[in-house]
Amino acid sequence: MRRITLAPRRDWKAKAEAVGFTWHHADGRRYWDERAYFAFTLSQVEDHIEAASAELHRLCLELVAEVVESPGLMTRLAIPPAAQEVVAASWKARDPSLYGRFDFFYDGAGPPKLYEYNADTPTSIYEAAVFQWLWLEDRIADGGVPKGADQFNSLYDRLRERFAEIFPKGGFVHFASDANFVEDRQTVRFLEDVAGQAGIEPKFVALDQIGLDADGRFVDAENFLIGAIFKLYPWEEMFRDTYAGKIGASRTQFIEPAWKAVLSNKGLLPLLWERHAGHPNLLETYFDDDPRADNLGRSFVRKPLFSREGANVELYDKGRRGKVLDQGYGAEGWIRQALQPPPRFGANYPVVGSWMIGDEPAGMGIREDRGRVTRDRSRFVPHVILETAEVIPIRGGS
Question: How crowded is residue 92: how many other Cβ atoms within 10 Å of its Cβ?
């Protein structure tokens, strides 16, 4: 695994905006960063990242099957009592899942270690599926990347296939997000386009325009029934909204399904460790109020059950707490995870995001930061597969 620097394409911003990738900068800071790329060998991708993703997916599904039978475990995961039947029914009906993203520590040498699972509303799918592939094609053409380079990236095709598997007869499907948040809206717009290619008729509805009719069915602003919906809105918030009690009887098919609530909070991590202690792809993790959490000593990461983009994550290194982005998360509880900072390349700390589409690993995206906690402004850096890429020391720079 190497981090290789190169000059960006001179026209990359124009190319990004031409294909709808308008959030390439955020608050004036670079989000898409092609001043470098990460190079992996095929073995690192297939034997490490893909294999770990498939294995963890299997363990996660086994855990869901256990948790939905246990009100105590669902309560431990901060799933409200009124929502637990919805979650269990969703699993028992085998409601289909579209996608998820495992976030890994990976240094190119040892096995990937799971930081967390973005199982419900993961973003960065567009840049992983489309724009980094377009980057690769351009860089091969202009000689910036060797001609034999490839990428772990079948995301676009697999998304289209998965939509067709979920909706084999096509039909009318709503897509929802915050209409005013550019990244979310453009992400959903991308998924609408992919769904359309799978024979689905997509219709966007802003989250704040969804209502209920007299029969307790969800409807859009034009009073069209919402029979099926992809929503970029997390279950932990849906279960606490004023209409939460209407979800079970609504007869709406949700993508992602309600059983993903078991996997989309960080309580997943201590439950996995408790059942598979010592697993090579897991970090030692406990609930914060578990006396065994003291096993981690003075170096650990304390995370809220629910948080986004590194918010309220507390990193303790030999007892010293790093800077925290406080956005008010943590009321539902916390976990403690063994401290395993991302590998360091120069001044950069990359985290590997491995995408699951349905039940299959299908691609990878890398976010890096100058800090050890990945946040909403962490940069997206493309990757390639090069058989000549060699493993180098973690602090080996670019």
Answer: 12
Q: Is 367 helix (H, G, I), strand (E, B) or coil?
A: strand
For 241-281, what is each residue's pLDDT tens digit?
999 999 999 999 999 999 999 999 999 999 999 999 999 99
* β-strand pairing of 36-40 with 2-5: antiparallel
Q: Is-contact 77 267, C-beta < 8 A? A: yes
Strand 228-231 relative to strand 171-177: parallel, antiparallel, unpaired? parallel
The token duo for 375 is 């946040």
Amino acid residing at 79: I
Sheet holding 113-118, edge to edge: 113-118, 99-105, 349-357, 360-369, 379-381
- What pTM does this model have? 0.94
Q: What is the spatial distance between Cα 10 and Cα 33, in angstroms, rounded to a whole number? A: 13
Q: How far apart are CA 187 and CA 20, in angstroms?
A: 10
C-alpha to C-alpha distance for 192 and 203, rounded to whole angstroms: 8
Q: How far apart are CA 352 and CA 354, in angstroms?
A: 6
The pair of three-digit structure tokens given for residue 117, joined into one six-digit string: 């699972």
Residue 101: helix, strand or coil by DSSP? strand
β-sheet with 36-40: strand ranges across = 2-5, 36-40, 383-385
